[in-house]
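sry for the spam today, last one i promise. struct tokens for design, 88 residues
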């Protein structure tokens, strides 16, 4: 069983700011909290194995983060509106 991890808040904020500039992937995603049935649009930035969550693209304050240890992230290409119309 993995032990808990200590994270320095100052270092986390520095990494989060760096992720906004040098991110490998970023963009809007819908997020639903455990205590709410509503989905909310948030801005996420992924760098290395940490997924950073912000209220909006220009937000300076980090909302939350998730450490993706042992996870696999793959970018997928969605069809454009034009491609979707051709299929219909």
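last one done:
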């Amino acid at each position: 069983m993995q032990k808990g991890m200590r994270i320095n808040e100052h270092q986390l904020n520095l990494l989060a700011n760096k992720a906004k500039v040098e991110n490998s992937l970023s963009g809007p995603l819908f997020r639903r909290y455990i205590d709410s049935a509503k989905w909310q649009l948030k801005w996420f930035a992924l760098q290395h194995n940490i997924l950073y969550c912000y209220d909006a693209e220009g937000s300076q304050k980090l909302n939350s983060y998730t450490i993706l240890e042992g996870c696999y992230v793959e970018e997928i290409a969605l069809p454009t509106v034009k491609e979707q119309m051709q299929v219909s």
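The CA atoms of residues 50 and 67 lie 5 Å apart. ok im logging off now
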